[in-house]
Design brief:
This protein is mainly alpha-helical. Helix content is 72%, strand content 0%. Helix 10 packs parallel to helix 13 (184-195), helix 16 (237-245) runs parallel beside helix 18 (275-287) and helix 23 (355-362) packs across helix 25. The radius of gyration is 29 Å and the shape is elongated. The N and C termini lie far apart (95 Å).
């Protein structure tokens, strides 16, 4: 019997060979077993398939599986850590774990103690993420109940967050895949029943639990099929919007809530119940002088999603006055580029609407904000989008209008003349078209 281990791989392989041929037996010394399991985990963590295969050939996996059954929590945790590294690598190793009938055992281990339980959830997430085929196998094994139990236990939020990540992989793929295997109804019922424990968030006792609830909702929206989202979220939409309206809700919670709402609006393109959401966000913009960057980013992205939707959504966002209270925030200096880009994308989408909509935009300060952003000249894409927006508006408004006066008064016309000599062909062409079409006198002078 060997009571100590050498760290070198060759010595470890030699030791595995001796165990495999039963030349020696594994010591009962827990410290040695822990060290032994640790070295195997280190091998698994290196992602060297040929090296890992060599160790598995000599029985490394079978030892780790035995350690998972240990009555010593620390050894179980070490074995789970080694298994987590193995399942984060090659798909062949994942199929080895499945063929060894380890999945039911792993599911049963979810009550083995917090540390081990969290690692087990990482293992399950690694396995589920590999393919839709494996995902369906997990659904058939009853994994949904175990994952949802962990997600909805807000007394252990670290574990709950890991379970949400693992659960997001279950939601991948199309509804048709689930229906073919008669699993969709099971999945939907499990989610609906369990998620009610997290909803509405107002009944949860801590801000951390509310944040976890919304992060779970976001993962469902991000990864689930469109049909599942429509079934589940349409009944909860106004409840989610209410979180944005509450003054005692943190900005972190509001940010992930807005991200979730934007994702729903992105997927359900004919969604016609956006009025309450638009009014709520508008109120927040009006009542807050300086929004956190995370909130402004989500608001701008949400605006770009709604304006890219149906004519009903575009009508709502314009008539309810979503953009005017947003514009002062977009004029702030040193804004992150993606915030400007999302905000401008919503503006550009709106200027692509019907003529009656565009005429209303001109009364809401659209030309002024486009000029302000264009004159900052932050990037090529932003400049091109600004030029497109001005062209869309002027094509409806025509020459000699208030819009033309704003372009002159803000110094944007001078900027347009400079852009007519740009080295960028697309920018030069767009600038020339605007100046020639709507400021012909300046065009003649330039010529």
């Amino acid at each position: 019997m060997i009571s100590c281990l050498d760290e070198s791989y060759q010595n470890l392989l030699d030791l595995l060979s001796l165990y495999q041929t039963k030349t020696i037996t594994m010591t009962d010394d827990i410290l040695v077993q822990l060290q032994f399991c640790y070295y195997i985990g280190c091998v698994f963590s290196e992602r060297d398939k040929s090296n890992i295969d060599k160790f598995i050939k000599y029985g490394a996996l079978s030892h780790v599986m035995k350690f998972l059954d240990s009555s010593t929590p620390t050894l179980r945790s070490m074995a789970a850590w080694a298994m987590a590294h193995l399942t984060s690598g090659h798909i062949n190793h994942i199929y080895l774990v499945i063929s060894a009938n380890l999945v039911p055992k792993l599911l049963s281990f979810l009550d083995s103690g917090p540390r081990c339980e969290e690692t087990i959830l990482w293992i399950l997430g690694n396995i589920i993420a590999e393919s839709n085929e494996i995902r369906d196998f997990f659904v058939e094994c009853g994994s949904i109940t175990h994952l949802m139990n962990a997600i909805t236990d807000v007394s252990n939020l670290k574990r709950a967050k890991i379970a949400t990540w693992a659960f997001s992989h279950v939601l991948r793929g199309t509804v048709e895949n689930f229906e073919e295997q008669e699993n969709f109804e099971i999945l939907f019922n499990e989610i609906s029943t369990s998620i009610n424990l997290l909803w509405p968030p107002s009944k949860l006792t801590s801000a951390e639990a509310v944040l976890h609830s919304m992060e779970t909702m976001f993962w469902i929206v991000k990864t689930a099929s469109n049909q599942l989202i429509e079934h589940f979220f349409m009944g909860h939409f106004d409840d989610i919007v209410e979180l944005v309206a509450k003054e005692d809700v943190s900005w972190d919670i509001k940010a992930v809530t807005l991200r979730t709402l934007g994702r729903v609006a992105l997927i359900i393109t004919d969604f016609r119940n956006s009025g309450n959401l638009i009014r709520t966000v508008k109120t927040m913009l009006e009542e807050t002088d300086s929004l956190p960057t995370s909130i402004l980013r989500e608001v701008c992205w949400l605006g770009s999603i709604i304006t890219a939707g149906s004519v009903y959504q575009l009508n709502d966002i314009i008539n309810l006055g979503f953009f005017p209270p947003l514009f002062p925030h977009l004029k702030e200096e040193r804004l992150e580029t993606d915030i400007v880009r999302y905000g401008l994308r919503g503006i550009l989408n709106a200027t692509n609407g019907p003529q009656t909509f565009i005429r209303k935009l001109c009364t809401q300060g659209f030309v002024d904000i486009i000029c302000s952003i264009l004159n900052r000249g932050e990037s090529r894409v932003i400049v091109c989008n600004c030029l497109d927006g001005l062209d869309n508006i002027l094509s409806v408004e025509g020459r000699g209008t208030q819009s033309c006066s704003i372009i002159i008064d803000t110094g944007t016309l001078h900027n347009l003349c400079s852009l007519m000599e740009s080295n960028d062909d697309e920018i030069r062409t767009k600038a020339v078209n605007i100046v020639k079409s709507f400021f012909p006198r300046i065009s003649t002078i330039q010529a």
